[in-house]
Amino acid sequence: MKMVKQIKLSDIPEDFVKQACKERLSFLDGNEVYYWGAYEEGGFVGCTCLVVYKNGHGKIKSNYVLKDYRGRGVFRELNEACLAFAKEHKVTNITLNCLSDSAKIHMKYGAVQYQETKTIKYLVYRL
Known about the structure:
This protein has a 7-stranded mixed β-sheet with strand order 1-2-3-4-5-7-6, covered by helices on one side. The N and C termini lie far apart (29 Å). The longest helix is centred in the middle third of the chain and has 15 residues, at 74-88. It has one domain: Aminopeptidase. By secondary structure, the chain is an alpha+beta fold. The chain is built from 3 helices and 7 strands.
């Protein structure tokens, strides 16, 4: 059974952070930084982070799901929780930078590409 809930950075297990950092993810802390964690079978399996700026815009950071749990709807649930929170808090645009594989997933859920380089795609969710 999967569960997604809003968490603090300190709730993310150290081994999870180490694994995510191997794939070049980073984690932020601050007043306008919000995290959601996904739990399955009692373990921490994924997280996403939203930074909210005072101008009503946001930026998704640190989306990550453990490899063994990918393709099981974990990302979808994390993304839905993040976007619902953003709408509730009057965030109008959410940007993110990601690799091609991740971009395809975000575009499936409504993000639109506005720029790209050889390795990074720049996307926006318009809420």
